[in-house]
Specification:
Organism: Sphaerisporangium rhizosphaerae
Family: Belongs to the 4-toluene sulfonate uptake permease (TSUP) (TC 2.A.102) family.
Keywords: Cell membrane, Membrane, Transmembrane, Transmembrane helix
Subcellular location: Cell membrane; Membrane
Largest sheet: none
Low-confidence stretches: 144-153, 318-330
Radius of gyration: 20 Å
Mean pLDDT: 76
Number of strands: 0
Helix content: over 70%
Number of domains: 1
Structural class: mainly alpha
Number of helices: 11
Main location: membrane
Shape: globular
Length: about 325
């Protein structure tokens, strides 16, 4: 079989993968809109090809968290009980809608919703990092004692009791969204887990989410291989760029200002979502300007609520306990 290789697409996936390596998020949320907006790939084909490429890439990060012991395996099991069959059903729903232009529009709108969720997920991840740094700060200065029944800061993930029903529901909703749009395995689910399991630390939430995403994405990928609009040439270009991109991004992640990158990424995702909804350029500019003005003020308010200086670069903003990994996430 002859495969047409698109070098431009490979370069685009390389740049996106660097961001993924730096932040741990944004794979489907950036890759799929890039394929639709800049390369004219039909939405369903973009979703199918991106999911197959993600199925190859996802296990790498999950193995790191498994070795570090930051994965709640029982929670992963309940999440997969809902997400794996739901992801396959999401593919069937997308396929049952048909192949016409109207169907591509539906997928495009669903992708827009998923991008908004992904932007929210990035904001939540930044909040988690800030909250954890605030807790380490108070622990280092000895100004805070644990409340009765509160888990210790070093408690393993398994110490947090699992709530099966809401966990399965999270998996079902996340699986459906991923199956239809390829977005959500690293954003929608982590936001829901934060709401249900506030006692989990940030790295435990990320590790648990990454591991459960492996069978979830594989289920969706298999569904799209069978019923979707998979294009081998698109997937090959994505893998050719994303494999070295993720490696390079991961190598420099410890030195890069991760918090700043996540904020910029959330801004790009919001702009991409508005593009998927066919919002006019004028309205998009006004929305983005409003976010640029309001978001920093709200973030400073959250910092002060957690006992941190409003500005991260203010004197005394970071303690030695906070300078491990990474202070830019403040």
């Amino acid at each position: 079989m002859r495969v047409d290789f698109d070098f431009t697409m490979a370069i685009g996936s390389f740049l996106v993968a660097i961001v993924v390596g730096l932040t741990g998020m944004g794979g489907g949320a950036l890759m799929t809109p890039m394929l639709v907006t800049f390369f004219g790939v039909p939405p369903l084909a973009a979703v199918s090809s991106d999911l197959v490429a993600a199925a190859v890439m996802k296990p790498v990060g999950s193995l790191v968290h498994l070795r570090r012991g930051t994965v709640h395996l029982r929670m992963v099991g309940w999440l997969c009980a809902g997400s794996v069959p739901a992801a396959f059903c999401g593919v069937l729903i997308a396929r049952a809608l048909g192949d016409g232009e109207d169907v591509q529009k539906v997928i495009q709108k669903a992708l827009g919703v998923a991008l908004l969720i992904a932007a929210t997920g990035l904001a939540v991840r930044g909040y988690l990092a800030m909250r954890d740094n605030a807790e380490r700060r108070t622990a280092a200065t000895g100004r805070r004692t644990a409340e009765p029944g509160e888990p210790a800061a070093t408690a393993p993930p398994a110490a947090v009791p699992v709530r099966p029903l809401p966990t399965v529901v999270i998996g079902v909703i996340g699986g459906l969204v991923v199956g239809m749009t390829s977005v959500g395995s690293g954003s929608l689910i982590i936001v829901a887990l934060l709401a249900v399991y506030p006692a989990l630390k940030a790295n435990q939430l990320v590790g648990t989410d990454l591991v459960q995403a492996v069978p979830l994405v594989m289920s969706a990928a298999i569904g799209h291989l069978i019923f979707g609009d998979f294009q081998l040439s698109v997937t090959v270009a994505l893998l050719a760029g994303s494999i070295p991109g993720v490696y390079i991004g991961s190598r420099i992640s410890s030195r890069a200002p991760g918090g700043l990158i996540r904020r910029a990424l959330a801004f790009v995702l919001l702009a991409s979502a508005l593009k998927m909804f066919d919002v006019s350029t004028t309205a998009t500019v006004w929305v983005l300007v409003g976010v640029l003005v309001a978001a920093p003020v709200f973030w400073m308010f959250l910092r002060t609520r957690h006992g941190l200086p409003a500005l991260p670069w203010a004197r005394g903003a970071a303690t030695p306990a906070e300078t491990g990994r990474p202070p830019a996430d403040l």
